[in-house]
Amino acid sequence: MRKGEEIELEITDVAYGGDGIARHEGRVVFVPFAISGEKVAARVTEVHRSYARAEIKNVTVPSPDRVVPPCPLFTRCGGCAYQHIAYPRQLEIKKRQVAEAFRRIGKISDPPVEAARPSPKDYHYRNRITVHVQPPEIGFRGTDPRRLVEVKECLLAEERVNAALAALRAKKRLRPGPATLRSEAEHTGFRQVNDGAAQVLAGAVTELAGRGEILVDAYCGAGFFAKHLLGNFSRVIGIDWDERSTNHARTNAGANEVYFTGDTAALLPAILAEHRPQVVLLDPPAQGIAPEVIATLVSSSVPRIVYVSCDPATLARDIGKLAAHYELKRAVPVDMFPQTASIETAALLEQKS
Questions:
Q1: Under 8 Å CB-to-CB from 326, ≥6 apart: which residues?
Q2: pLDDT by residue (tens digit) across 308-333?
Q3: Other C-beta atoms within 10 Å of 50: how many?
Q4: Which listed residue (71, 77, 154, 310) is catalytic?
Q5: What architecture (CATH level 2) is domain 93-118+192-351?
Q6: Which residue among 13, 186, 236, 335 has its CA within the 20 to 30 Å range from the CA of 55?
Q7: Which three-class secondary structure state does DSSP give residue 317?
Q8: pLDDT tens by residue, 200-214
Q9: Which is nearest to 175 in space by CA: 129, 130, 136?
Q10: 80 counts as catalytic
Q11: Which of 51, 48, 8, 55 is nearest to 34 (CA)?
């Protein structure tokens, strides 16, 4: 196989990140914008020892789930990976990717991954976008990150966000650099980017957490999950390193909720020892939880853990590390970012007897 060679490929799967997977001459070949079950004529763009990359020249046998992408910038803009796939099939792909991460990384042979829960909107759902300004151009980084793709309207953004983009483009003087455009200009604290799907995720977390006396919400941010769970627990305790977020959570806190500012790894041992919660909720950054947090959870014998993650790989890694002491009972993917390769997952672990 050599760069520039044209080859025939059969796509067997879609990898996390969005590329189709095929095999040719003993190598795995990654093909963007392909769907499993398709046959494509492709041109090799990169060749490495164990894998290659190729671009589609022609889809010779299309999937029945292939659709016409509505955005004229699709395949050039770096934001979307799945506009060419019917939405129900996107959900199936994401469920399979979560399950595969648990099998391959977490070493869980039969992971209990449920059907991915859809976003109420699969377009026009984002309440904010960040564009890059390089006067006179305004746009997103492309599939080639060295290039800026000029954007006049983003089909993932809410109408008010696109109105803010139009207003920015109308300015005579533009400041170079990133610019975040919001549906509500005064809202500067943390907020899930998809309000409708955030409520779906909160519902899934509420199901998994169940009921009890005390819940500890580690990485609580401004208290999004904690405040949804107040009715199910007598007391909720939040932890987050960001003082602005915890201050926001405290502004309307009731008598049965308290928020601590600081590092979860440092604060969690004393909080668990003093309060003995029935549930610990984890919603860490994409890099997952620190080894010290895993050690604390194991030694404290928390009965239930609910782990929310935006990265199936780190979720599977961390749950794999907890597997000697906790059993994965449910995993619920939620499609927070339709048309993109991102996946949000809520998982329930119960302590082994």
A1: 305, 319, 349, 350, 351, 352
A2: 999 999 999 999 999 999 999 999 99
A3: 7
A4: 310
A5: 3-Layer(aba) Sandwich (3.40)
A6: 335
A7: helix
A8: 999 999 999 999 999
A9: 136
A10: no
A11: 55
